[in-house]
Design goal:
mainly alpha
Length: 94
């Protein structure tokens, strides 16, 4: 069976199943509706924050570097040979 015939058979089968289904006698209470709406808005908020976290801050940082501004700790390059390590058990200063 070629791809277009398989797509046609799948589409026809899906249409027949959709037409043969009975209406659902379900009740959605106000509390359930608000809960579902909260989940939907929370999911949209999470997607928005992911986009901000992964795309906006790196773009903002790159734009600041192009303007010559410092954006905080970690932006300056450190020479590994002359850098001082913080005091720790592995690096005693006494």
């Amino acid at each position: 069976m070629n791809k277009s015939a398989l797509t046609a058979v799948t589409g026809l089968g899906s249409l027949l199943l959709l037409l043969a289904s009975a209406p659902a006698a379900a009740y959605l209470s106000p509390g359930s509706g608000l809960g579902a709406l909260s989940v939907l808005l929370g999911s949209i908020g999470v997607v928005f924050l992911v986009v901000v976290g992964f795309f906006w801050y790196p773009i903002k940082r790159a734009m600041a570097r192009l303007r010559g501004e410092t954006t905080g700790a970690g932006d300056e390059e450190v020479d590994a040979e002359t850098a001082e390590l913080p005091d720790s058990p592995e690096n005693p200063t006494a």
